[in-house]
Amino acid sequence: MLLLAILQGCTTPAPPATRAELVLDAGWSTAPWRQPTGHPELRIEGTFDLGPDPGTGSVLRIEGGWWHITATVNGTPLPSVTGGLTEALISVGPHLRSGENTLALQVVAPAGVDPILTGGSLSSVGRGSGTALLQAPPRLLLRPAAHVSDAWLEVRDGQLYPHAEISGAPAGAVVAFSATLDGNVLADLGRASISEGRADAPPLPDDLPSWAAGSARLLHLHAVLLDADSQPLDDLIVRTGARALTAAPLALDGEPLRLMGARVVNQGPQTSLSESLARLAPAGINAAEIHGETFRRDWLDAADELGLPLVVVPRCIGRSSRHTGERASLLATMAQQDAATARLLRTHPSVVLLATEGPAPEKMPLWTEALAEAKIPIAGADLPARVLSLKRGEGLTDPTLRCQPRDCRGAWLVELTPWWRTLRTGDKPDSPTRWRLLSEALVSYMTAEGSIGAIVPSANPREVAGWESAWQAAAAELSIPVVSGTGRGRSEVVVTGAAPGETVWLSAAQAPTVGAIADTKGVARLSLWHDGSASVRVGDVTAPVILEPGHWEGYAWQTAVAEVSLQR
Asked: Which helix (H) or strand (E) holds 551?
């Protein structure tokens, strides 16, 4: 659907650029998120107009940066950070200035890094760990010195708990929470005082629409930072959902949640979660597993909208028990990774389960501390993950089933392994017999042995052929519920006629403000999760625009685009 608006010469005082998110998708010397370089190091540089007040609390967010990242802001080099499996956040506010700013990024692939920290490699197939990558354009989170850095919802024991993290709050400041949708306030969620950078509101009855598998009811959590005189200092609006999870047995809002998923593999900019699920869902798949991969925010957002449950294994099972080097140092780095991962995942209701295997020899449950600190609303923290392997005996009709590293009862099964090292000509990897045997073993474990769910490693091309009919039979016998693959999505806006490099803003009531940089043809592309009235602003010129959200249908994305043509 195409919606058209003409942006003409009505002027209004420009609001400050702070409290906004600026996507830096244009204006760089190169765009590696569109075409990977294939080299162990990449460098990009760009100059951007950030307006009159870029904010001293501003942060540069790097998604999918592999691995070491260094930023230079207006000629000032900043300390390097690590991206890898999680997002990297770089404080840049003190170095920004009004008007034009020059940013430079250097990304260097890991060298000599223990595989326990990388999940083994960037991806299980198609790419080694020695290629420097930037999988998404950098984003500038423009914030004042006192600001809300994050907000999320937790549902526990029938009660709703709003949370926020605050930076630089003055004495007497509080945070006011509300739930909003499409410009309307759904519920006032109360106020909370701030202690040690956290605002944890008193519990409320959980009366908000619940996110459920197959029914993605999302909303905006709005957190407003108020000073002692109740004057607003900053606000943050986060798209999220409310749902209650319990483990053993796994249940969502009190209803049993039985999952059989497919492992989705990150192969770079061309990877499509929706295409993978459209192909896999007919075989009874109703969940997806992210296993030892870089967490892609676009995947998490899509799963939220599709009502698609996600299972996260932050490091490759098997690799996480084996490591080299100094153990204490590795554990400290892993704890930092886990905390960053928890912060990333806690706003995404689709993430329902975290499975992990602790490092040898003590099997330390690293997730426990990270999740407790983050108050992440996910069931099964430190739930044991197991590998169910089908080993060949004397013949295909006499297999040996083995669960590694220990008993599979009460565990989440990952990497169901349907191959064996010695194969006869008739037993090649596309043999339907091995899939039938493994699916029968899966049914046995998910019933008699009480495992929680399983992942089919079918995203790997070498493992695909012949599995569909076996898994359809297993899904039917286990009564695996179907996920529809439908849901709402973002509204998209294309602005033409801007000056190359000009900053374009899109805002709506009770929704976040987002910005983009016009490319060399003067085109800027923006998206906002909002249905209804909004406004586009370029400099001091604004115009209204009506947004209509796109939607998912059978995992296929159907866009709704509003076009805005600048007439100045």
From this structure: strand 551-553
Whether residue 540 sits in one domain with residue 470: no
Q: Rounded CA gap, 199 and 375, in Å? A: 12
Domain residues for the domain of 538 are 1-24+486-568
Nearest CA among 370, 416, 368 for reference residue 391 = 416
Report residue 176 CA to chain centroid gap: 26
Q: Tally the domains of the chain.
A: 4
User: Do 261 and 383 share a domain, yes or no?
Assistant: yes
pTM of the model: 0.89
Lateral strand order in the sheet of 487-488: 487-488, 551-553, 556-558
- Of the three residues 141, 176, 200, the one that is the final residue of a domain is 141
Count of helix runs (H) and strand runs (E) in the chain: 7, 41
Residue type, 243: R
Place of tokens 């191959």: 419
CA distance 132 to 455: 29
For 498-535, what is each residue's pLDDT tens digit?
Answer: 999 999 999 999 999 999 999 999 999 999 999 999 99
Residues 74 and 119 in one domain: yes
Q: Are 109 and 130 in contact (CB under 8 A)?
A: yes
Alpha-carbon gap, residue 504 to 506, rounded angstroms: 7
Dihedral of CA atoms 276, 282, 286, 292 in degrees, nearest 10, equals -30
| Shared domain check, 529 and 505 | yes
